[in-house]
Every structure is written in C-alpha cells, then in structure tokens.
Amino acid sequence: MNSFNSLFRKHWQLITFIISLLLLVWLIWKFIIIVAPFLIGLIIAYLLLPIVRWLEKHLPGGKKHPGLKRISIIIGVYFIGLIIIAASAFYMFTVVSSSASLLWQNVPQMISNIIAWIQKLMATVRLEVPASMLQQYDQSITNGGVTVVEALRNGLGRGFSIIATGAGLVLGFLSLPLIVFFILKDWDSLRDGFFDVLPSWMSVHAKNVAGILEKVLGRYIRGQLILSVFVGILVFILLSVLRVEFAPALAVWAALMENIPTLGFWLSIAASVAIALATSPEKAIWIILGLAVVQLIENNLLAPRVQGSVWKMNPVFILLISLMGAYVFGMIGFIVAAPLVATVIELLKYFRRVYHSTTVTTDNGKALP
Fold this sequence. Notes:
This protein is mostly helical. It has helices at about 1-30, 30-60, 65-125, 135-165, 170-175, 175-185, 185-195, 200-240, 245-255, 265-280, 285-305, 315-355. The protein is built from 12 helices and no strands.
C-alpha cells in the first residue's frame, strides 16, 4: 500500500492523464452513434487542411481580412471537391457499374468454370496421393471448403451488420459539410482553445499524444488514400493493356483492397486471377506477374515516400492483429485493427518514456523531446 501511494505521489500527473484518456476513449465508444459524424468530419478536415493552408499561403490578398480569405478558399476547395466527386460518381455509375453489373451476371458461369478448374486440379493431385491416405485427403478437402465458407460468411456478416447499424446515422452525415467547414475555418482556434482549457501539465501530454496520432494515424490515413488512388490507376492500366474483362471494376476493387493490411494485395490478385481463369486462362500468369510488379513499385517507390516507416511492426504481427479485428468486428475490424494497435504501441512507448524520465518536468510546460 505504501509503495502504491509513493508511486501515485511521484507520477500522479501521468496516471491522471492516462485515466482521463481512457475515459475519453470509453465515452467516444459509448456514444459512437452520436459522435461518428463529427469524427469523420474531423478526418476529412484533417485531410483537406494542408490544401487550405497551402492555398492560403500562396494566394494573394487577405491581409486585411484573413478570415474571409480562408472562408473563400474553403468554399473554392468545396466546389472543386464537388466537381471531383461528381466526376468520380459519374465514372462509378457508368463504367464501373456497367462492368460490375456484367460481372455479376456472369458470376454463376465464372464460378462454374473456376470450380471445374479446381476439381480438375484436385483430381490430378488426388492421383498422386497414396491409396492409404485417400480418405484423409478427401476429408481434409471437404473440411477446408466448409471452413473457408463459414469464415467468409461470419466475417462479412459482422461487417455488414455494423454497417447496417450505422444506417441510422444518415441524418448526422447530412451535416458533414457544415462540420468540415467549421472545423477547417476554426482549426487553429479550436486546437488552441482545447489545449488552453487543460492544466499546463496535462496540456503538455495532450500535445504529445496529438503529435503521436498525427505521426501514426494521420500519416497512415493520408498515405492510404494516395496509395489507393495510385494502385487503382496502375491496375487499371495493367488490365487494360492485357485486355482483361471488367478492368474498371477490378481496378476499383484493387484500390479498395489497398486499405486492408498484408492480405489486401492477395485479395486483389485472387479477384483478377479468378476473372482471368473464368474468361481467358492464358492471361492469368501475366496478371500475376503484372500485379507483382505493381506491388514492387508500391513497396519500393510509393510507400516509402508517402508513409515512411510509420509502422515498425512485423508483417506476421500485423496479419494476426487484422484477423483478430475481423473476428470481433468483421471487415471493418480487419481494416482498422492494425493502425489502431500501432497507435496504441506508440502511446505506450511515450508513457514509458515519461515514466522513466528524470529530466523532463511537466509543471513548467516543456514538451517531451
């Protein structure tokens, strides 16, 4: 008991801050239905903020009324954003939707072709299996198929149930443009006002935690957005050159799969190869090689420049965390589990540095180096 009292007296500021942070996270989770539009608005504003600041710095005027200049820039960014969204929606609802519709109509035949190809492959392999092991081989194939189907059904079911639960947020999301507008307009004052409300020692920790969120989550979100666009374009060019059917739909699929850690690349290959096997089997090997080149370009040229070494985790650990997230929250958990865990790891490292630090004093308002 005395050791606990001594520990609390020595580190009461850090302990109080951690408890406050955990309470804030719990409240956000408890009222996620209410705060979700504000969190999404905050993320969108965060993504647009560098553009607004760059325009604000390089465009002339605004010395007498800087507030009006920022409002004008935000309105201009909104207008350009609406044009981009409209153009993307037009493309999605014409080219991609037509490809996806045609793909959906051909799914039964494609599945039949793929199943026939797999059965032929399994029959060939079965001829090489010793007679004493045939029963075990057949049972393993049957159990493996059932396991895959159940895993897909459970994972997608959880993901879609979460999405369905959030369908009631439509009214909240209708206010997103206003939320983003006011956050962009008053970003600096909102940030400074939040830190000023806190005690000086807590403000230091809050600024450092905000810096960690910016370094890990912020860079990850921006990086994934940029990488998704690049990968989608490269895959579309590749499949168009190879004259693969449904290239637009597969390119959009590849862009979406880019947001899934580790397994996204393989899911993208699986979809493209499955389409090739069902339509033009001779192109499958070229698709695999082409997508491998796209992956090499992303990993060696794009990702280091866009994201840097944000995640210092082993790929096996990332995959394990993603699968655990998928088990609990479905597809959404599969996507967000790894970046959230990476953020938590960096926060724990920060708290450990503060705990062991003897040179930094939070009372005088100095931030941790």
